[in-house]
């Protein structure tokens, strides 16, 4: 129906957990610490979880490994009341939300990144079967029409359709930013798909939002950008019609994953585009069954930079996210002293918010990692200990040594290992 079958692309994952075994350390409550060790080692031993449900749908930098999230969901949700919710205030692309939904739990996520919210909502869109079928049918129709439109234009030797001009965006500046990354015929095919999704939005904004996530998932695959985290230009020969066929493949992949995710009855996750500092507006203080999250690592990523091409093409407003992104590499490059102080203050702030959100006696699991910022080692576990408030108990932790990347990390850490940590805090 759509021409030659597109082979499933090899998924290039960028997960936050180490892919190779490293020396393990643990302390605190022995039972919980052993589970945390299992969560860390699951990233190397579990080869299946990352391919289940909707996990393979969309790449995302430093994504929490789904197998780690699965272990933590089991641990933190144990004994929760039915009406209580699990919370991820740095939900990213929704890995923890997917695992919580698969467990039949009520779950709430938030992120300041507008792209993360689109992807997380798509991956957890467990709408009724009729609506899921409608998603698939609409996606197929959009792709088929885009293919036919491209063929018709070539046969008629007509002028190409004009490029989109999203409202509120300077079209010339947008064109300049996108021109280097997409071959002209690929750009026009993608713009056609985006226009048709916007047409759907007029009558069905919910399905249009999910389809926008499908379009986002293919953008870097048909661009000249090497990957999410590598902005190096690379030559790719993308044939006419390939983007539309790849789009419909992602629709089918998401549809199948959502069907699997919907087999356990549970409410659809609530996902909000917002700063953690406003967490009490969506989860009343003292009510959460648990928190599972992986906050940003100091000086490691600039998500706004990694995803700027998607922001530009999808016409996503990201100024608030760019201004509010925590612990960015660019902030440490600009002023290391001020960035370090800001990072410590932010860590204190969100640990305080987590404490306020939890119901008494309930737990939070934080996945954090050591890093290098402005050539200085940042020891995340020490910083987290300093941030723990009087109404929280550091109940257990486990750490796994990670390899150094480059001479700068070796110099910064010296003889001290770099580690990834999972910490469990309990509200008193």
Describe this structure in words.
Helices cover 46% and strands 14% of the residues. With 428 residues, it is α/β, with parallel strands linked by helices. The protein has 2 domains: 243 residues, Vaccinia Virus protein VP39 (Rossmann fold); 133 residues, no CATH class. An 8-stranded mixed sheet has the order 1-9-10-6-5-2-3-4. It has a two-stranded antiparallel sheet with strand order 7-8. α3 links the parallel β2 and β3. α5 runs antiparallel to α9 and α8 packs across α9. The N terminus is likely disordered.
Mean pLDDT: 92
The biggest beta sheet reads: 8 strands, mixed
What is the CATH topology assignment of the largest domain?
A: Rossmann fold
Strand order of the largest sheet: 1-9-10-6-5-2-3-4
Task: State the order of secondary-structure elements, H for helix, E for strand.
Answer: EHHEHEHHHHHHEEHHHHHEEEHEHE
- The radius of gyration over CA amounts to 22 Å
> Stretches where pLDDT falls below 50 for ≥5 residues?
1-14
- Measured by DSSP, the beta-strand proportion falls in 5-15%
Count of folded domains: 2
User: Strand pairing plus helix content: what structural class?
Assistant: alpha/beta
The CATH class designation of the largest domain is: Alpha Beta
> What percent of residues adopt helix (DSSP H or I)?
40-55%
Indicate the CATH architecture of the largest domain.
3-Layer(aba) Sandwich
Would you report the number of β strands?
10
Number of helices: 16
**N- to C-terminal distance:** 60 Å
